[in-house]
Amino acid sequence: MAGGNISNIPTLSMNVSERQKRLETLSRVAKYTLFRAITLFLTVVVGVYLTIIIANMGGHVDQIRLAQIEESVGSRVNNDPKLQSLPVAELRTYIDAQVKLQSEHLGLDRPFVLRSLSYLKDALSLSLGRAEVLTSDSGSKQVRQILLERLPATLLLFGFADLVLFFLCIFVALSLSRRYGSFLDKAVVALAPTSAAPSWFYGIFFILIFAAVGKILPFGGMVAAPPPQNTFQYALSILQHMVLPVASMLIGSVFITIYSWRTFFLLYSSEDYVEMAKAKGLPSSAIERRYILRPTLPTIITTFSLSVISIWMGSIILEVVFNWPGIGRLLYLAINAFDTPVIVGSVVIYAYLLALTVFLLDIFYALVDPRVKIGGNQST
After folding, report:
1. 215 is a domain residue
2. Predicted local confidence at residue 367, as pLDDT
3. CA separation for the pair 147, 164 (Å, rounded)
4. pLDDT tens digits for 70-84?
5. What pTM was estimated for this model as a whole?
6. Which of 198-212, 290-304, 344-358 shows the lowest per-residue confidence on average (mean pLDDT)?
7. Residue numbers of the domain that contains 113
C-alpha cells in the first residue's frame, strides 16, 4: 500500500503542475484581452472625439446654427403683421427671447467643450440622434434610419467588387509566383503603375466611352427610372448599373494588388522548407497549400477583414461620380450640408467595427499561427 501511494505522487504532482500552467495561461489571456479591449476602446474614444471637433470645425458650425436660428426667427417676424406693429424695443426683445429659447433647446447656450463631451457620450452609446438637414427616403430624420437605408447599396456594390478583387488577385498572384519571369508576369509588373490613378478617374472615362458615346450602359444610379416592377428585371437593372463602377474599382486596383501578393508569395516560395518539399517530390498544390498559403494566412485574413470593414465607408467620390445611393454619397451630402450627426454617426459605427475587427484578429493570429503567444513577451 505504501509503495503504491508513493508511486502515485509523481502523477499527482504532474496533474497539479498542468493545472497550474492552464490557470496561468488563462490568466495571461484574460489580462491580455482586457488590456487590448481597453486600448482599442480608448482609441475609438479619441478618434470619435477628433471627428466631433473636426465636423463642428471647433465650434464654428454651432455659430452657423445660431445664425440660421436668428434668420428663421427674423423671417417669421417679417411675415407676421401683428409682430411688425410692435415697438422696435419690444420686437428686439421678442426676437432675442425666441433665439435664446431655441438655442437652449439645442444646447447651444453651453460652451463648446461641454457640448462636445455631450456629443461624445451620445456617440459612444450609439444614440445618434436626428439629422439636421438630410432625411431618409421615408422622410425620417433619425440618423440610424438614414444610414440603414443607404448601407445596403454600399454593401452590394463594394462588397461584390472587393470579393471579386480579393479572390481574383490571390488566385492570379499565386499562379504568377509559379511562373516568375513569364510574359504574363512581366505584363502585370508593367501595368502595376496604372493603379496610381483612383478608381473614379477610370469611372469618368468609362462613363464617357460606354454611356455617352457607346450608349451601352447607363450613366449612373442604382436602378432604371422608373424601376421595373418585375423582380428579375429589377435585378438585371441593378447588375447593369453595377458594371461600370465595379469595372472602375477593379481596373484601379487589380494590377497593383496582384503585384503585391505575387511578390509576397515569391518571398515565401524561396524559403528552405519549400525547397525541401519540392525535393521530396510533393505536388505543387500541396506545397502551395501547406507551405505558402498557411504561413501567409494571417496576412491574407487581415487584408480581407480590413477590406470588408472599409465597405462601411464606401468611396465618396466614386459614389458621387456614378450617383450611387450609398454611404459614400451620403457622407458627401452631409459634409456639404454641415450635417454633423450624420458624419459623426458614420464614423462612430466604422470605428466600432474596425476596433472589433482588430480585436478578433489578435485572437485569430494565435489560432492559426503557432508562433504567436498571447500575452507573452516571446514567441513559441
Report:
1. yes
2. 65
3. 25
4. 787 777 777 777 777
5. 0.72
6. 290-304
7. 14-124
Q: How many CB atoms lie within 10 A of CB 55?
A: 19
- Confidence band of 378 (pLDDT split at 50, 70, 90): very low
Give yes or no for a contact between 134 and 143, defined as CB atoms under 8 angstroms apart. no
b/e per residue 192-229 (b: at least 16 CB within 10 A): beebeeebbbbbeebbeebbeeeeebbebebbeeeeee
Q: Is the pLDDT of residue 340 over 60?
A: yes
Alpha helices, DSSP H, located in 126-230:
143-178, 183-191, 199-206
The answer to whether 292 and 173 are in contact (CB under 8 A) is: no
Q: What are phi and psi of 142, to 5 degrees?
A: -70, 130
* Contacts with 185 (C-beta within 8 Å, 6 or more apart), sequence order: 176, 179, 262
- Number of helices (H), then strands (E), belonging to the chain: the values are 15, 0
Q: Are residues 301 and 179 in the same domain?
A: yes
Q: 190 and 333: one domain?
A: yes
Judge whether residue 352 has pLDDT over 70.
yes
